[in-house]
Amino acid sequence: MPAIGTNKSKWPKGADKNETYMTELLARYEQEEAVLKLGGGKKKIGGQHKKGRKTVRERVELLVDKGSPLLELGIYAGWEMYEEIGSPASAGLVLAIGKVSGRECVIIANDATVKAGAYFEVTLKKHLRGQRIALENNLPVIYLVDSAGVFLPLQDKVFPDEEHFGRIFYNNARLSAIGVPQIAVVMGPCVAGGAYLPVMCDKFVMTEGANMFVAGPALVKAAIGQEIDRETLGGATTHNAISGSADYHAKNDEDALEITRRIVKNLPNPEMGKFNRMEPAEPLLPAEDLNAIVPEDAGSYDMEEIVARVVDGSDFESYKSEYGKTVLCGNARIGGYAVGIVANQRTMVTSGAGEMQMGGVLYSDSSDKAARFIMNCNQDRIPIIFLHDVNGFMVGRKAEWGGILKDGAKLVQAVANSVVPKITLIIGGSYGAGYYAMSGRAYSPRFMYLWPSASLAVMGGNQAAETLAEIQLSQRKDVCDKERSELINTIKERYHRQSDPRYAAARMWTDAIIKPADTRQVLIHSLELCEHQSKMPAPLFGVLQV
To answer: How do residues 303-359 score in pLDDT, each as one tens digit?
Structure first.
C-alpha cells in the first residue's frame, strides 16, 4: 500500500496555533479528570479506609494484571448534572476493560465515596453500557458491588422503564444464557433490588463486613416487627453458611480480589474471531503531530495527515480516490489488523465534473462511494473505523434534484445493516444526519470516542442561532437589532455548552474523550476486544435507493 502524509515542517502556517489550542484543552481535561478520579473527595476516601475497605480505584488496580493497559470509559459521566444535589463524580461508578489473569474483562465497580454508590439515571446508563460491551464482544464481566442501591429522591428516573434498573437483571440473565461469564464480588452494602445482581451471576464472592438483603433491619422492623442486626440478617457468614447464596467467603478486599483472579484463571479459553491480522508496524510519522492538525475555528485540514499517524506504516490504499472526494475511504492496518476507514475530508475539493465541493460535507457522490465501501468491508469481514468531522449532507436545489436524500438513505442503510465491528472517533464537528450516516451512537458502534476538539449537535451553533431567532421573532415587527443580537448570542451560548464533548460524555453519548496522541493505542485495544466475538452473521442489506 502507498504511504501517505507529510512531515509537519512542510505543513501550512497555523499548525503552531492549532497545537497551542489542543495543548490547552488537554491540560484542562487532565486537571478535571484528576478531580473526578477522587470520587467523593479525600474525606470520603478516608472514611472508606477507616472501614477497612479499599476505594474503587484501589480495588480495580489490585484486580487487573500489573502493567497491562486499562481502558476506562465514562470518566465524565454525570459531569455538571444533578447540580441541585451535587454532581456525582463519574456517576459513582468505574467502568473499565482490562486484563485479569491474562483475560480481557469488563469491570463494573461502584464508588462508595460518591453518594454511597447510589444509582442515578446516568449511573444506570453507564452500568448498562458495560453489560452491552460484554454482550457484543463476548467479554467476562466482573461486578465490584458496594452500593446503597437506587438514589431514592430520583427513583422515578431509575426504576420503572425498559432501560431502567430492571434491565441490569435482564442482562444478567441474557449474558448467562449465552455463556458470557459473570462474577460478582460484594464488598460493601448490596440492598433491595440490587441484591439480585450477585445471585444472578455465575460466581459470587462476598467479603467479611459486607451486607446483602432485600430489606435492611429498619425496614424489616417496620414491615414485620422483627428486630435483627445487619450482620445476622445478611452478612457474609449468613450468605455463605446459612442461605447458601454466596460461593466464596473472603476475609477482606485483598482476599476477595485474589479469589476473583483465580476464578478468572479457571475460565475456559475464549473462542476468538478470525480477523485478518499481521505483524504490526509503527506509523512513519509521530503521533504527537496529531495535536497540531485540527484548527480551533473548525477550519479546513487534510484528513490524510491524521490517518497517516494512526495506521501501520502510514500506508493507506484509497478506494475510488477520484470520486466522492469529500469522504476518504480505503484499506489500512492498525496494530496489524486489516481495517476499512471512512473519514470526512476537510479540504475543499474539485469533483471529476469540475464542481467545487466543501470539505466536511456529504454529497451524493461521496455518500454513494461510502455506502459501497461499507458493503465491501462487510463482504471482506473487516472492521470499519469512522473518523468524523462532518457538517452534514449538502443542501439546496442542485443537491435535492441530484438525489441527495436517496443517496444519503443508501449510506444510512449500509451503516445500519453493517455486521462487522464499527469503531467511531469524532475529531471535530459532527452535525445533523451526517452524525448518523457516519455511525453515530444510534448506529451501535462497538466503541465511540471523542477528541477534546469534538462537537456534537443537530446543527452548528451559528446556524441554529439564526434559525431559532428567526422563528421566535417572526411574529413580531418591533424587534430592534440589539434585541435580535442578544437572542442570537444567548442561543449560541446554549448550543456551545450543549455541543461540548464533556456534555456528551456526561450523558454517556460517547465512551470516552481521548488524547489525540493515544488514538492508535486506543483503537488497537478496541480492535483486540472486538476480536473476542467468535461468530459474525452474514450481511443483509435492505432496499437500497439507486
So the answer is: 999 999 999 999 999 999 999 999 999 999 999 999 999 999 999 999 999 999 999
pLDDT in tens, 462-473: 777 777 777 777
Check residue 314 and report its DSSP letter: G
**What three-state secondary structure class fits 274?**
coil
Fold for 37-265, please state it. Answer: 2-enoyl-CoA Hydratase; Chain A, domain 1 (3.90.226)
CB 371 within 8 A of CB 437: no
Q: Structure pTM? A: 0.94
Is residue 146 classed as helix, strand or coil in its secondary structure? strand
How many CB atoms lie under 10 A from the CB of residue 496? 14
**The domain at 287-459+500-530 falls in which architecture?**
Alpha-Beta Complex (3.90)
Q: Are 496 and 296 in contact (CB under 8 A)?
A: no
Comparing C-alpha atoms, which of 294, 312, 283 is closest to residue 360? 294
Determine which helix (DSSP H) or strand (DSSP E) holds 248, and give its type and residue range: strand 248-250
For residue 514, the number of C-alpha atoms closer than 13 Å in the C-beta half-sphere is: 24
Q: Are 351 and 410 in contact (CB under 8 A)?
A: no
Query: d(Cα 113, Cα 120) in Å, to the nearest integer?
Result: 14
